[in-house]
């Protein structure tokens, strides 16, 4: 079953809800190694997106995602804005002009989103960043799609990989951003960026469960 713009809008609504519901939790995670505002910064950006959703409904899938990325880049404070922004922009550029997208398209979109995040953040698996959740999710989704599994099944596998990736950051030492200055003191704290990435992917799965 192909994914349309209305499905993406529904997924964005679930993301907004997830970030709002977990704002305090994400701030608490960030307080251990950063300024304690990761959840609040994300919430600010997604709330601004919420105001614009009605005006995005008539866009094709690609334009809708690119515009989403632009809104997040402009309204999420700190280093997270460009990272989340490029993820959506890159994903959207992969399907510009398409009214409907397939699970194979989504696999390419996720890969492009990861590529953008890694390029801007200059991070790899093990650096205690968004990448620790996003890369395993992207790889798992691609493998599931290539095996012929459905979109819902593939997303479920990806979300589980993202969850494990986020949890794995608890034992890592931060190597990027402000947290890296704390060295070994960051061990024992789950990375807020990896955690919010998992929550966003989980929101996509939840919206998929309602539409498929």
The number of distinct β-strands equals 2
Report the uncertain regions: none
Report the total helices: 9
CATH architecture: Alpha Horseshoe
The overall number of domains is: 1
Biggest β-sheet, characterized? 2 strands, antiparallel
**Biggest sheet, strands in spatial order?**
1-2
Structure description:
The protein has one domain: DhaL domain (Serine Threonine Protein Phosphatase 5, Tetratricopeptide repeat). It contains 9 helices and 2 strands; from the N terminus they run βαααααβαααα. α6 packs antiparallel against α7. The termini are close together. The relative contact order is 0.15. The model has no long low-confidence stretch (mean pLDDT 91).
List the helices and strands and how they pair.
Elements (H helix, E strand, L loop, with lengths): L2 E2 H17 L1 H9 L6 H19 L4 H15 L4 H14 L6 E2 L1 H19 L9 H16 L4 H18 L23 H20 L1
Antiparallel strand pairs: 1-2
Helix pairs in contact: 1-3, 1-9, 2-3, 2-9, 3-4, 4-5, 5-6, 6-7, 7-8, 7-9, 8-9
Précis, in short:
With 212 residues, the protein is an all-alpha fold.
Which key terms come to mind for this protein?
Serine Threonine Protein Phosphatase 5, Tetratricopeptide repeat; 2 strands; 212 residues; 9 helices; mainly alpha; two-stranded antiparallel ribbon
């Amino acid at each position: 079953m192909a994914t349309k713009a209305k499905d993406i809008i529904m997924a964005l609504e679930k993301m907004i809800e997830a970030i709002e519901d977990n704002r305090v939790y994400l701030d608490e995670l960030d307080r251990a190694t950063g300024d304690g505002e990761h959840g609040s910064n994300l919430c600010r950006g997604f709330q601004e997106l919420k105001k614009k959703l009605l005006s995005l409904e008539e866009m094709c899938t690609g334009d809708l995602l690119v515009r989403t990325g632009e809104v997040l880049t402009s309204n999420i404070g700190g280093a997270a804005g460009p990272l989340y922004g490029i993820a959506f922009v890159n994903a959207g550029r992969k399907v510009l002009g398409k009214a409907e997208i397939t699970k194979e398209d989504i696999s390419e979109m996720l890969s492009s989103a990861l590529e953008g995040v890694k390029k801007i953040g200059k991070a790899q698996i093990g650096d205690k960043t968004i990448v620790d959740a996003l890369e395993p999710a992207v790889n798992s989704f691609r493998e599931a799609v290539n095996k012929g599994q459905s979109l819902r099944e593939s997303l479920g596998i990806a979300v589980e990989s993202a969850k494990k990736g986020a949890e794995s950051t608890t034992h890592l030492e931060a190597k990027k951003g402000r947290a890296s200055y704390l060295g070994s003191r960051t061990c024992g704290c789950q990375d807020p960026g990896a955690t919010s990435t998992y929550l966003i992917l989980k929101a996509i799965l939840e919206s998929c469960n309602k539409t498929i």
